[in-house]
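Let us work through a complete example step by step.
Step 1: write down the sequence.
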Amino acid sequence: MFGYSLSAVIKPLFAFASNSWHILLFRFGDRVGKGLRGPARDALIADSSTTKTRGFSFGFHRAMDSTGAVIGPLLAFLILSFFNQSFHLVFLLSFIPGFLAVLIILFFVCFSFCFRKPELCVSFN
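Step 2: predict the structure and record it as tokens.
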């Protein structure tokens, strides 16, 4: 959760970067967020799928990730084309998908730390 939130908050800050060290700092923070969310996301995918559907679940995740990697730059190109090459706007709008991801995780994903024993289960949703 923290990794998604960190990336969502840091990406729009690129719009306000005025020095190269700002970009370095923001990029570092964004990569830290990615590093924190990756293992937790993989554990969540593995825990929410059965042994038979685990491959499909990870494959679906990869497919959606690749789809976003194609659609995101296309949307950025369209925004740049229609809004007078406004890079600031592109970076500010990048907050929206990250914010939506955080909301989806908060309200629609059940976090449970059961350790495969129901009596130890603590649910956070």
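Step 3: interpret the result. Helices lie at 2-10, 20-47, 54-82, 87-93, 95-108.
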